[in-house]
Specification:
This protein has about 60 residues and is mainly α. Helices cover about 95% and strands about 0% of the residues. The longest helix has about 35 residues.
Amino acid sequence: MLAFRLLIVLAGVLLVVSLLGYSLNRDPRWLRFAGLSLKGALGLIALLMLVYALERLVIAL
Protein backbone atom coordinates (compact mmCIF):
# COMPACT_ATOMS: atom_id res chain seq x y z
CA MET A 1 0.00 0.00 0.00
CA LEU A 2 2.85 2.34 0.79
CA ALA A 3 4.40 1.58 -2.57
CA PHE A 4 1.22 2.67 -4.36
CA ARG A 5 1.23 5.95 -2.45
CA LEU A 6 4.89 6.54 -3.23
CA LEU A 7 4.27 5.87 -6.92
CA ILE A 8 1.37 8.36 -6.90
CA VAL A 9 3.62 10.98 -5.28
CA LEU A 10 6.33 10.24 -7.84
CA ALA A 11 3.82 10.65 -10.67
CA GLY A 12 2.75 13.98 -9.17
CA VAL A 13 6.34 15.15 -9.02
CA LEU A 14 6.88 14.07 -12.64
CA LEU A 15 3.75 15.96 -13.66
CA VAL A 16 4.96 19.17 -12.01
CA VAL A 17 8.46 18.83 -13.46
CA SER A 18 7.14 18.18 -16.95
CA LEU A 19 4.79 21.19 -16.80
CA LEU A 20 7.68 23.35 -15.59
CA GLY A 21 9.80 22.02 -18.45
CA TYR A 22 7.07 22.92 -20.93
CA SER A 23 6.75 26.42 -19.49
CA LEU A 24 10.50 26.98 -19.92
CA ASN A 25 11.07 25.85 -23.50
CA ARG A 26 7.60 25.19 -25.08
CA ASP A 27 8.53 21.75 -26.37
CA PRO A 28 5.37 19.63 -26.91
CA ARG A 29 7.19 16.49 -25.78
CA TRP A 30 6.89 17.80 -22.22
CA LEU A 31 3.10 17.90 -22.56
CA ARG A 32 3.04 14.34 -23.85
CA PHE A 33 5.14 13.27 -20.87
CA ALA A 34 2.81 15.19 -18.54
CA GLY A 35 -0.17 13.39 -20.05
CA LEU A 36 1.45 10.01 -19.60
CA SER A 37 2.32 10.71 -15.98
CA LEU A 38 -1.22 11.95 -15.32
CA LYS A 39 -2.71 8.80 -16.86
CA GLY A 40 -0.35 6.66 -14.81
CA ALA A 41 -1.26 8.48 -11.60
CA LEU A 42 -4.98 8.16 -12.29
CA GLY A 43 -4.53 4.46 -13.00
CA LEU A 44 -2.68 3.97 -9.72
CA ILE A 45 -5.36 5.89 -7.84
CA ALA A 46 -8.06 3.72 -9.39
CA LEU A 47 -6.12 0.59 -8.46
CA LEU A 48 -5.67 1.83 -4.90
CA MET A 49 -9.39 2.60 -4.60
CA LEU A 50 -10.20 -0.88 -5.90
CA VAL A 51 -7.90 -2.46 -3.32
CA TYR A 52 -9.53 -0.42 -0.54
CA ALA A 53 -13.01 -1.43 -1.74
CA LEU A 54 -12.05 -5.11 -1.84
CA GLU A 55 -10.51 -4.81 1.61
CA ARG A 56 -13.74 -3.33 2.99
CA LEU A 57 -15.73 -6.07 1.26
CA VAL A 58 -13.59 -8.81 2.80
CA ILE A 59 -13.86 -7.20 6.25
CA ALA A 60 -17.66 -6.98 5.89
CA LEU A 61 -17.89 -10.70 5.16
